[in-house]
Write a structure and sequence with these properties.
Blueprint lengths: L2 H6 L5 H23 L12 H7 L8 E3 L7 E4 L4 E3 H6 L3 E7 L6 H16 L7 E7 L7 H10 L6 E5 L2 H11 L12 E6 L5 E5 L4 H18 L3 H5 L1
Parallel strand pairs: 4-5, 5-6
Antiparallel strand pairs: 1-8, 2-3, 2-6, 4-7, 7-8
Helix pairs in contact: 2-5, 5-8
Length: 236
Amino acid sequence: MSQRSLVGIAAWPAALLSLALLAAPGVRAVEEQQHHHGLAPAGTADPHAQHRAMLEQAAPSSGTSTEVKLHDEALLTQDGERVKFASEVIGERIVVMDFVYTTCTTVCPVLSAVFTQVQDRLGDRLGQEVLLVSVSVDPTRDTPARLKAYAARHQAQDRWIWLTGEKPRIDQVLTGLGAYAPRFEDHPAMVLVGDGRSGSWVRFFGFPGPDQIVAAVDQLVAARQAATVTPSTLQE
C-alpha cells in the first residue's frame, strides 16, 4: 500500500487499519485467479480501481442530511425469510445501513468491520432502538446462505439483518437509497443512518468510524425524544 494510502486512512480506528492492510495484498491475487479462470478478461481495467481510491481517502468528518425513497419490495433475509423492505424491515425503526457483496476484497470487509464495532457499541440498544441492515449489491450470487456465512464471519447478531433477493427488486431498493451502480463492483462506499418514523436520514460517504455512526444514532434518538415533549408536558 502506498504512502498516500497510509496518510489517507490515518484517521481510521486501529482495528480497521489493520484489516485494510491485510486485505490489500490479497486483492491482486484474487484478480489474477479471476483472469486465470476466465471470470475477467486479461488486460481489462482494474475492476477495483474505484474502491482502491476510496480506501485512500480520509475518513469523513461528518454525515450529510439526505433524502431517500424507501421502496417496499419483498426481499430475502440471510435466513431465507421474505420481508417487505420499507414496511417490515425499516418500519418506524432507527436504522444503520450499508451496502456490500460477499466476494468483495476491498471496501466491503472494511465496512463490515465498522458495523461489527457499531454492534458492540450499541449493545442492548440493538434490537430495542436500532437495527443494523446490510444490503447486497450482488444479489445474483449473494444467496441467503452466502450472506449468512458472511454474516457469521463478522459475528453478526440477530438484529443485524442481511438482505438479498431478485435483482430487479434489489436494484429498485438501491436506487431509492442512492446506492445503485450499473456495475455492482462500483457501488459507493457509504453508510446511511435514518429514522423510519420521522424520515430523517444522514449519509456518510467513505468509512465513518463507529463512534461517528453511534453519534448519528444518538442524535436521531434525541430528536425523537424532543418531538414527544409538548407544551403541556413542559407545564407539568
